[in-house]
Amino acid sequence: MSVLAAAASDDVRIAVYWGQDASEGSLRDTCSTGLYAYVNIAFLSTFGDGRAPILDLADHCDPPSGGCASLATDISSCQSAGIKVLLSIGGYNLSSPSEAQGVAAYLWDNFLGGTGTGAPRPLGDAVLDGVDFDIEAPSRYYDDLARNLTSLYRGDARGRTYMLTAAPQCPFPDESFAAALGTGLFDHVWVQFYNNPPCQYAHGDVGALRSAWQQWTAGLPSTTVFLGLPASPDAADSGFVDADTLASQVLPAVEGAANYGGIMLWSRSYDKDTGFSVKLQGILQNRTSDKKRRIYIIVGTAVAGVLLLFLLICIYFLCHKKNRGTPPPEEGSGTPPASKIELPQPKQKPQRLKCYTDSEIERMTKSYAHKLGHGSNGDVYRGNLRDGRQVAVKVLKNSMGDDKEFMSEVASIGRISHVNVVPLLGICLHGPTRALVYEYMPNGSLESYALSNDDSVEENYSLRLYWEKLFDIAIGVARGLEYLHDMGNDNAVHLNVKPRNILFDQELRPKISDVGVANLCFGREGKRTGDPRGRDGYDAPEVVSGNFGSVSSKSDVYSYGVMVLDTVRAKRSISVGADTNSKYFAQWLYEHLDQFCNSISDISSETRDLVKRMIIVGLWCIQTAHTNRPSMSKAVEMLESSSMDLELPVRIS
To answer: Which of 230, 272, 505, 580 has a Cα at 20 to 30 A from 450?
Structure first.
């Protein structure tokens, strides 16, 4: 178990600075990504030398007019998710110990647990988790400020604890901050290993960084030390480390320190633009999964060996006991005694769905208070089971068939079990209410991550999903559909494959939702009549019109192909022609495939091959004639091969 715990420790805690660029999104949105453990609100940029303190949060809000008080709800949302929110101060010198005492009192009364002076608090009634010192110029009396703040912290009548953190420069010790750090009062320091060539990573050499890191961790043994880095090459003059290099070369050089805490990124704005932390977390999660897999194999082999030995011993004693109690055969009979041993066979327990009443559904969803989404089949609400687990409750409308038929369809859905399909946990068939209770997927849908209403490259939310992750999503969805189609029943045809119905679990693993709902709400006949039902471009031609043939698993193949090509189009980070914004993007890709793939910058040849495979498979899947489309099994096979082994379809039709 200790080995498994060590393998699971490869995640990384990230601290980030927020508040300097309105394009970075709201504080609530920043926290809701689940990427960060600490968020520093930056900055209280003016104070000291007799100046009145001034909070500067760029275009997010206007502190002098009280416009930043609304951030209190965002801060509360972050803290309820376990994220520490701190106020970062920086930029100015303190003139005396008495001024340090006055600044400490101001911070305590206006941002922390103090009662205030009667004036409105700049961030409303929010009580932050601490103060971060980001002092980059020679300064004095910050040791006094740290002592005064700590004295106030310890006097909190409610017993609440607060934090002191700092962002010193990496040459050890930071001459501007050495005295303050010498107090030993800081919980965390995120040392800035950028814009400091003597101690940062450069040109494949981790030696200088490792040496400086060892000085910091040894010099501050009681303080947790974070590795401070820029989230983009544009965020600093030097010291940027890409996510792959960070995971493979730099983190192994620093993680061994007992007081290693994680990394600090400057800043949320740059991180949102590049998707740096998303990619890093994905790489580390894959590394953890590989470690666990190897450990499970080793442990499983050992356990299997022990069980086999135990089984052989049991068989030996059973045989010995039976043979001892069996009389010898009569002489001349020629028939040996029967010694057959029948071992118990493992029983397969069918998956049982929990049945709920309509009042239980209402309690579970708090009277349908939090709607997650809606569609033609019904609305989805967030809920909680009695054991605290979160669920998603889909309340169906226009359900077809009698109760017996409904239960038969639901039982078929309940037998579905695959890592890329959202699990069904329970049902409600009580009074007028028909509802399905699913495991809750905390990271939303592919539509939220990969597609955006604003089609500009700069604002496209899809930048958070790097190419390798898009490929993982594409092949995960393909495997889920392959599993469904191989089941050989009507629920195998999903008929609603689109980004909105591809959800993500805690690890951003894709899961297909709404499996079998088409049967429950429209009936077998209804779904084969080609009734458009206000549907969109993800539908195969035969779903929209019966003139193109009957609905089958190949209808899902078409929808899957459209979805893959849509995510590729949304992800593009370069301009390759005017037609890329049109509905003819698939035709344009067909004619300019190599040009598109080769013009994607900053990716390896292996990643470029992944992109090419996705596109080729997508083009095959969207063939008008269903006979020309591959099965999902064939699509998976194509995705797992090399693009050099794949041919384009004869034409796009």
So the answer is: 230
Q: How many CA atoms lie within 13 A of 212 on its CB side?
A: 25
Q: Measured between alpha carbons, how far is 22 from 19 in angstroms, rounded to an integer? A: 7
Per-residue pLDDT of 251-281, as tens digits, reads 999 999 999 999 999 999 999 988 899 889 8
The dihedral region occupied by 48, where left means phi > 0, alpha psi between -120 and 50, and beta the remainder, is left
pLDDT of 344 strictly over 80: no
Could you give the CA distance from residue 82 to residue 34 in angstroms, rounded to a whole number? Answer: 10
Amino acid residing at 234: D
**Which CATH number is correct for 354-440, 3.40.50.300, 3.40.50.980, 3.40.50.720, 3.30.200.20?**
3.30.200.20
Tell me the C-alpha distance between 618 and 564, whole Å.
Answer: 6
- Token pair for 391: 């669920």
CB 549 within 8 A of CB 491: no
Give Cα 529 distance to the centre of its chain. Answer: 39
Q: Which residues pair with 85 in a beta bridge?
A: 39
20 close to 269: Cβ distance less than 8 angstroms: yes
Calpha distance 412→415 (Å, rounded): 5
Q: Does pLDDT of 330 surpass 50?
A: no
Q: With a cut of 90, say whether residue 42 has pLDDT above it.
A: yes
Alpha helices, H only, 275-328: 276-324
Tell me the one-letter amino acid at 500. Answer: R
CA distances from 376 to 234, 373, 567 (A): 45, 11, 23
Give me the pLDDT at residue 247, please: 92
| Four-residue CA torsion sign, 22, 26, 29, 31 | positive
Helix axes 467-485 and 276-324, enclosed angle (nearest 10) = 40
Bridge partners of 610? none
Burial class of residue 622, CB neighbours in 10 A (0-12, 13-18, 19+):
buried
Q: 203-255: per-residue pLDDT in tens?
A: 889 999 999 999 999 999 889 999 999 999 999 999 999 999 999 999 999 99
Nearest to 219 by CA among 193, 194, 196, 189: 189
How far apart, in whole angstroms, are the C-alpha atoms of residue 262 and residue 255? 8
Residue in 497, 614, 513 with CA at minimum distance from that of residue 556:
497
Q: Which CATH class is domain 12-274?
A: alpha beta
> Per DSSP, what are the bridge partners of residue 421?
512
> Out of 115-129, 137-151, 478-492, which region has the weakest mean confidence (pLDDT)?
478-492
- Pull the structure tokens for residue 310: 């135990």
Active site residues: 136
Give residue 529's pLDDT band: very low, low, confident or very high (50, 70, 90).
very low
pTM check: above 0.90: no
Residue 466 has, within 13 A of its CA and on its CB side, a CA count of 23
Q: Tell me the two tokens of residue 90.
A: 């920086």
Question: Judging by beta carbons within 10 Å of its beta carbon (0-12, 13-18, 19+), is residue 119 exposed, middle or buried?
Answer: exposed
Residues in contact with 545: Cβ distance below 8 Å, sequence separation at least 6, in sequence order: 530
Query: Higher pLDDT residue, 292 or 525?
Result: 292
Is the backbone peptide bond immediately before 98 cis, with ω within 30 degrees of 0?
Answer: no
Identify the pLDDT of residue 528: 42
Q: 557 with 632: CB under 8 angstroms?
A: yes
The matching CATH number, chosen from 1.10.510.10, 1.10.1040.10, 2.40.160.50, 3.30.450.20, for 445-653 is 1.10.510.10
- From the DSSP assignment, how many helices (H) and strands (E) are in the chain? 22, 17
Structure-token match 């028939």, residue found: 335
Q: Which position has the token pair 């040849």?
A: 605
